[in-house]
Amino acid sequence: MTTLIIIQLILAIALVILVLLQGSDNEGLGLGGGTFGGMMSARGSANLLSRLTAITATLFMVMSVVLTITASIGSDKNVLESLPSLNSEEQSSEEPSIPE
User: What is the DSSP code (8-state) at residue 63?
Assistant: First the structure.
């Protein structure tokens, strides 16, 4: 379980970094020009970053589902059953007490 959480954390950090590296219309935090040839040209880097971001986001979503399933397997109760129960019958028959 701890390994899955660490992988999820790494994916979250990578996703944030990839989103920040992508260029906007004004090239705010983008990589800028292409100094690495054809693959890392302005258009090539945008395609590469877009694909890496999509892959990382997909992996993040899959890991979220895996973590949810893993956490639910270890528990016998679902989320609604784990909430504290409120007995409306007991509360309606008792008069509310005023603290002194």
Answer: H
Q: pLDDT of 8-58, one tens digit each?
A: 999 999 999 999 988 665 554 555 554 444 455 555 566 888 899 999 999
E strand residue ranges, the chain: none
- Give residue limits of the domains in the chain: 1-11+35-73
Amino acid at 76: D
In contact, 32 and 23? CB cutoff 8 Å: yes
Dihedral angle sign, alpha carbons of residues 76, 79, 80, 82: positive
Residue type present at position 5: I
Q: Please, are residues 44 and 34 in contact by the beta-carbon 8 Å criterion?
A: yes
Instruction: Report the distance separating Cα 12 and Cα 56, nearest Å.
Output: 8
Under DSSP, is residue 64 helix (H, G, I), strand (E, B) or coil? Answer: helix
pTM for this entry:
0.57
Amino acid at 47: N
What does the block give as tokens for 5?
């959480």
